[in-house]
UniProtKB/TrEMBL annotation:
Domain of life where this protein originates: Eukaryota
One GO CC annotation: nucleus
Region of interest: Disordered: 376-417
Listed transmembrane segments: none
Compositionally biased region (Basic and acidic residues): 376-385
The protein, known as: PCIF1 WW domain-containing protein
InterPro entries: PCIF1-like, PCIF1_WW
Gene Ontology terms for molecular function: mRNA (2'-O-methyladenosine-N6-)-methyltransferase activity; RNA polymerase II C-terminal domain binding
Positions of the PCIF1 WW domain: 197-342
Bias (Polar residues): 388-403
Length: 417
């Protein structure tokens, strides 16, 4: 008897997030050094949805009939568990569990093999460009002093990027990358609003390409990475930014005004509000201001907004990381955590004593935040004329977050490629 199963929506993303929360490998996307090898999230989803778990058949014919009905109703297309069954009344759930565990390990080992191949190709590309990676040496102990938080900087220069073609349309840009191994070019789309935003982030954060010669190629890499991560391969919705969700603008404005928030701990170049943020992929996002993954980020002072994706293991790792940061720092440190649930969005303030003294969540501040979350508040805000910044030059580190954000959201700006 074959048990069929179709993966639930976004299950691959949750598997990646759960694996990366414990992964110690070198690839930014695929896991390669995880313990245990069996993913708890993948194991739970498969075991909860195996059709044979739903019924308690007495005869083989009844079991086959119910499995067939389940497959027809769910339109299942992917076989994930193969179990030889002679007598349905003697089903061994232990053997089913072992089969599912074997499947989870197989998926993980496939990921490890892909990471190995990607690494080999990475080293080959660097060698062709005359770039050699420095040997791995132990990091020196950190210096106990406060410094400005800057985007991730690479130890080695960027290799020469392949040529990409781009076509300006009325409301979007089409970016094409042609590979010799494929007959059709790989095409990405981005609307002009997001493109202008990426241009400003690139201007603020990129230090090795002041002439914007590599800008379009790096935009393509960002779009391709998030399209791959989100499994967004439908021709009808190829724009990667359409899948990026965030909090309303009114909430960010309230957090900045009343709680001093200037940093997002879970964002991307496509959906960030502040120009300081953490994202999942530092290799592609650092040119646009990313400070790297949040679990590797260790601030000692500041006010942060934390809105993790809904993944139980990632949320648990995030809360443990925040607790450790608050315990080790005597500087004002505060995190405002949003967690989605079936009843809506829950908000928590996690802060040390110094952070509480500086950003105390008083009744008036909490009321202002609730008002910012009110449905329709963002539409009311859009009707109010917004003042344009008078200076369009690159802001200094002392520039206010509101000024920076107005520059990021400015829609009409000359572009140089």
């Amino acid at each position: 008897v074959y048990i069929f199963y179709r993966a639930p929506k976004d299950s691959f993303n949750r598997w990646l997030m759960e694996r990366k929360s414990i992964d110690r490998g070198i690839d930014p996307l695929l896991p390669s050094q995880c313990f245990p090898e069996v993913s708890p999230s993948m194991f739970r989803e498969i075991m909860n949805d195996i059709p044979i778990k739903i019924v308690k058949p007495i005869f083989t014919g009844a079991a086959r009939k119910q499995l067939s009905q389940y497959a027809e109703a769910a339109k299942i297309s992917l076989r994930v568990v193969q179990h030889q069954l002679v007598n349905v009344s003697h089903i061994s759930w232990r053997r089913v569990r072992e089969s599912v565990e074997t499947l989870c390990k197989k998926v993980y080992h496939i990921s490890v093999e892909h990471v190995r191949r990607i690494r080999e190709r990475h080293v080959q590309l660097l060698s062709e460009s005359g770039i050699h990676e420095p040997p791995l040496v132990p990091h020196p102990p950190p210096i106990a002093r406060k410094v400005w938080c800057y985007p991730v900087q690479f130890m080695i220069p960027s290799p020469r990027m392949p040529v990409v073609e781009y076509i300006q349309d009325r409301d979007h840009m089409v970016i094409k990358y042609s590979q010799t191994s494929q007959s059709q070019p790989d095409t990405q789309y981005i609307n002009h609003t997001h493109l202008q935003k990426l241009e400003q982030l690139y201007r603020f954060s990129c230090y090795d390409d002041k002439k914007f010669e590599l800008f379009i190629g790096r935009v393509f890499c960002v779009l391709k990475r998030y399209q791959t991560f989100l499994c967004n391969t439908s021709p009808a919705s190829q724009e990667a930014e359409l899948t990026q969700a965030s909090l309303p603008v009114t909430v960010f404005e309230c957090l900045n005004r009343h709680f001093g928030v200037t940093f997002e701990c879970f964002a991307s170049p496509l959906n960030c509000y502040f120009r300081q943020y953490c994202s999942a992929f530092s290799d592609t996002d650092t040119y646009f201001g990313s400070r790297g993954p949040f679990l590797d980020f260790k601030p000692i002072s500041g006010s942060f907004q934390v809105h993790p994706p809904y993944c139980e293991e990632l949320i648990d790792a995030t809360l443990q990381h925040i607790d450790k940061l608050l315990t080790e720092s005597s500087e004002p440190l505060r995190s405002k955590v949003n967690v989605k649930s079936v009843h809506g969005t829950m908000v928590f303030w996690l802060q040390n004593n110094a952070g509480f003294s500086r950003w105390n969540p008083t009744d008036s501040r909490v009321e202002a935040l609730l008002e910012a979350f009110r449905p329709g508040r963002e539409r009311e805000r859009d009707k109010i004329p917004q003042a344009e910044p008078t200076n369009s030059s690159q802001p200094t580190p002392e520039a206010t977050t509101a000024e920076v954000n107005m520059m990021l959201n400015k829609k009409e700006r000359k572009r140089k490629f």
